[in-house]
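Morning. Coffee machine broken again, so started the prediction first thing and wrote up yesterday's gels while waiting. Chain of 348 residues, entered below exactly as on the submission form.
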Amino acid sequence: MEARERPVRTAGVPLAEKVAFLRRPGSYAHRPAAVEAIETHMAWVFLADGEAYKLKKPVRYSFLDFATPEARLRACREEVRLNRRLAGDVYRGVVPLVRLPVGGLAVDGAGETVDWLVHMRALRRGDFLDARLAAGGVTPDEVRRVVHRLVGFHRDARRVPITPAAYRERFRRDIGENRHEILELRRQLGADLPAEAVEELARGQLAFLDAAAPLFDARVAAGRVVDGHGDLRPEHVCLEAEPVIIDCIEFNADFRVVDPLDELAYLAVECARLGAPATGSAFLAAYRELSGDEPPEALTAFYGSFRAFLRARIAIWHTRDGAILHPDHWVERTGHYLRLALERLPRT
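Came back before lunch.
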């Protein structure tokens, strides 16, 4: 069911009230036996006997704005539209959360809209790539089926008009921000993270970006920069008979501007972080075979190193959240990503 235009309450309903309602099995028409609630930085997800509902939090960051119901509706619609490219019928649509005339809340129904929910078909947790890697791995056929899906997706994706200089400048900007924010948060936390590793990564990646400028420019000239997924991690890849890939970035189109090789290098880094570097290498090998793209190894290495550096920055961001119970976990994760980035750093 698609979102319908409805009047939106200006006063709003507290997030805690919405979450409490959506946690209750009796809140859903199909009466699930139980509801599992999962909180992320930007949303709450409610798993209810084969159905899933996502409620976006009313938050605003430098890279997204969910502060108003209207903004959340736009983001919900974009999430469904964009994710149907790789997940098909998993994304059922957008439904309103309403306040009933007699009081109380309801999922859909006649009433005054107070927020919006992305409605999805729930996927089996054990079928996701990260869970499969933890349980023992995936088969070569499963790797090929995922890559086959991705190659078709990237082939048909919208080409992003961008100049070679602008493409390289995106990396230059992010590398500088990675360096600055990791070092600053390291200082604030007094964290045991190697500052020299951060400096080496920034210097090395910037040096490669300059020395290998023709490699990046050739990717742009060949039309390989597309409107892609933007967050291709194992926890977003579900190994059903026909693989589905969920949770692309809907809140910032700039984050989806990507070279398909960059997306696969990102997936390979995340497989390595989970202790399965051979599986990551298998994804890259299948990409080269099925796409016909034969990129230089140094470019693949750069993309992987860059993604690991970016993920280090995102990991240490978590320590700024006052609700985080174990900040040391995120400091350790940051260090792991820095090591992965250094391992892949191409030498000029």
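The chain has two domains: 15-122, 129-344. Going to sketch it on the whiteboard this afternoon.
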